[in-house]
Structures are given as structure tokens and as C-alpha cells.
Amino acid sequence: MLFLILRPFHFLLPRSIVQTRDSISNRKFIERKKSDIPNYALISTSKGQITVELYKDGSPDIVNEFIDFSQNGHFKGMHFTRVIKNFVIQGSKIENPEATEDWTSRGKHYSQLDTSLKHEAFMLGTSKAKHEGGGFDLFITTAPIPDLNDKINVFGRVIKGEDAVQEIEEVDTDDHYRPKTPVQINEVTLRHKT
């Protein structure tokens, strides 16, 4: 008689174990997938190597986009198209970068604002403005620039290679802050450890 009473509940135990196992599996998959995301990017430039720690928890969508572009070779051969001393260096493949030209040029004169941790020196970011060509600009700040909070999504910080950033910052530029001699990104390599 006891067997007949317990028989209908027979499937509940295995089902709940399977559901719990599936739930744990999904969580482990998500955690594993999150841990598979590289922590660092090594940006090899014609002026030296720059190591960047990626903020995968703070800016996961931007980091994923950066990783996709890196793996597809988007940054290979990208030139630094704008270099503004004590402000920012910009790498871009966009032929006509007027969208960022206005605020990068004006921003050079806005140094009287309060500083912000978000845009301190040696932060890596990309423009919040989406470009028609599906491109991905890279900006590295060379000084604290709080007025860029509404212009740039920060997704990393330079942890090694500040000297390479400063060497890029020191190149001669024309009146529009374009380097007179090309400075380019040779390659971006993604790493889990430095």
C-alpha cells in the first residue's frame, strides 16, 4: 500500500534533481563563459606596447564588442588620427571623423572642470556616438578629462606602457591635431594574464 502512495511521487525526486543539476549547469556555463573573457589587451603600436586591463564587469557589452573587433583584426593597421597633448590620443579607421573632431578639439580648452575617476589619465574608451561604418574608435586619455563622461565609454585602463602612450602624445601634429608622421596599431592581442 505504501508503494502505491509513493509511486506517483517517484518522478518528483529525479525531476527536481535534474532541474537543480540543469540550473547549476547553466550557472557554471555562464560563470565559465564570463571567465573565458580575456582580462587584458596588449596593444602593439609603432611606438611600443601598451597593456590594458579590461573592465569586463563594468562595461561588459563594450568589452565584448572590443574583443570581437580585436579577434577580427579590426585594429590591425589602425592609425592614431588625432593626438592632443595633455588630453587624448584617438585611434580610428573612420575616414571622416567630424563627429569627434568638434568635442576633442574643444575639450582641449576645458581643463578647469572637477576631476573624475572615470576619466583619469591612461583610461581606454570608445566613442558613445555610433559611426555609420560600424567602426570602433579607441581613445586613451593622457590627463584627467571629466568633460568626456558623456562622450566616451570607458572600458579599460593602461597598466603598462604609459611611456608608449606618452611617446605617441609627443608626436608633431598639424593644426587639426593629426600626426604629421603616421603612428599605428600593429596588433591587439587578448590575454587572461599579463
Describe the structure.
The protein is an alpha+beta fold and 194 residues long. It has a single domain (38-191), classed as Cyclophilin-like (Cyclophilin). It contains 5 helices and 8 strands; from the N terminus they run ααββαββαβββαβ. The protein has helices at 2-6, 12-36, 60-71, 98-107, 162-169; strands at 40-45, 48-54, 79-84, 88-92, 123-127, 138-141, 152-160, 185-191. An 8-stranded antiparallel sheet has the order 3-4-6-5-7-2-1-8, sandwiched between helices. The longest helix has 25 residues, at 12-36. The protein is globular, with a radius of gyration of 23 Å. It starts with a helix and ends with a strand. Residues 107-117 have low confidence and may be disordered.
For the structure shown, list the relevant keywords.
194 residues; alpha+beta; Cyclophilin; Cyclophilin-type_PPIase_dom; Peptidyl-prolyl cis-trans isomerase; Cyclophilin-like_dom_sf
